Amino acid sequence: MNTTPSGTFDVAVIGAGIVGSAIARKLAGYELGVALLDARDDVGDGTSKANTAILHTGFDARPGTLEARLVREGYRLLSEYAGRTGIPVERTGALLVAWNAEELAALPGLREKAERNGYDRTEIVGPDEVYRQVPHLGEGALGGLTVPDESIICTWTVNLALATEAVLRGATLLLNRAVRAVEERDGVTVLRTSGGEVRARWVVNAAGLGADVIDRLFGHDRFTVTPRRGELLVYDKLARPLVDRIVLPVPTALGKGVLISPTIYGNVMLGPTAEDLTDRTDTATSAEGLAFLLGKGEKLMPELLREEVSATYAGLRAASDHADYLIEADAGRRYILAGGIRSTGLTSGMAVAEHVAELAGEAGLPLVPREDLPEPPRMPNLGEAYLRPYQDAARIAADPAYGTVVCFCERVTAGEIRDAFRSPIPPASLEGLRRRTRVMNGRCQGFFCGAEVKKLMGAAGGSAPAPCPPSPEDGR
């Protein structure tokens, strides 16, 4: 069921990023009417779309924290879910590289921290092994710490799979619904949004960058989100032979620092920066960010800088003044906060959803498991290491559209574009189509295929209105 006859949902989840979509999917597995709201015109169009796309073991999380536990559990849950739904994952492993004596001295502590977090597969290695594993690394590495189970994953497909399964389970997806105000009426919470009122008995706040603003609408003042901009450079696929695993710096208080990583799409990524801002909508790249990354890249892997850059982008992380995830239930207001969830939310999202459901049940939300759940969706493969439609002779023989390549840089076919618009959550814009198919994400950035892609979008009914302008109250 979706709502009661009065039009009231049992639960409204604010924010259709990875965490919010995972929560909606989990709650829709019970006899509940669930709404999933987002301020944007698509799921995963905020923080979740622009991160380093690493599936973390949680080896370097602060031991004993809720984040450490949920990242560890989320790694297991998402790994299993990826296998069931076809989300592409590559078990590349990672290597933390120490470049000076202080960083080298920190490696035993990092190994001990990993063991306290339940991960015992790290190994301290000397410079010879570092360069054996990453021969193209710049000069001067003193040693390293191996993390063999770190992986790369498609963050776009994770988000879409979770939201799609929520919808298949009966959740109602409400896009272009930025929450502006909250009212209580006769025991029901009324969310006044940019797209009209949404009524719900319970509300879950998974609004990412706007979570603190939403939290204050419910009468709390317990944390502040600072948008932290991370800029990244994406190098052409010809650079991929330079690096076959994630190369990490020794972490600092600001984050994991600048890394070099292969991507699930066959590219190589350098970044991110870490710049605290006040504007929660500023995802522009900057000359300063570019210069900073190039300087880091010259030290880490000079050969990489001689390769072509196919894209630059920036994302905003929800940095918080709270040292841990902040996930709490307010039984009196029938309200749950899932805030302060940083970039590790990609890995921990499904575990966060399990934790939220547990808190909700303890706070009084009736949780009756459904017996009629549909099978999880099988997602289109965007991973370069797996069979793509243009390579699948049997699939092409059954439907020639999968043999009609439209985007030659990324080898995207007309069949994939058609399927995206026939899916349970079709794209509302060109950017949404890019996240579902990789179309126009290659080195020419749509210069060659752009006109044909837009023609196919029009034929599929993909002309969409512009999204609502973002605001500090955006549910992302």
Automatic annotation (TrEMBL):
Annotated TM spans = none
Write down the Pfam families for this protein, in alphabetical order. DAO (PF01266), Fer2_BFD (PF04324)
Q: Taking every annotated instance into account, which residue ranges of this chain make up the domain BFD-like [2Fe-2S]-binding?
A: 405-457
Under which name does UniProt file this protein?
Answer: NAD(P)/FAD-dependent oxidoreductase
Q: Where is the FAD dependent oxidoreductase domain?
A: 10-359
Domain of life of the organism encoding this protein: Bacteria
Q: Which organism is it from?
A: Streptosporangium fragile
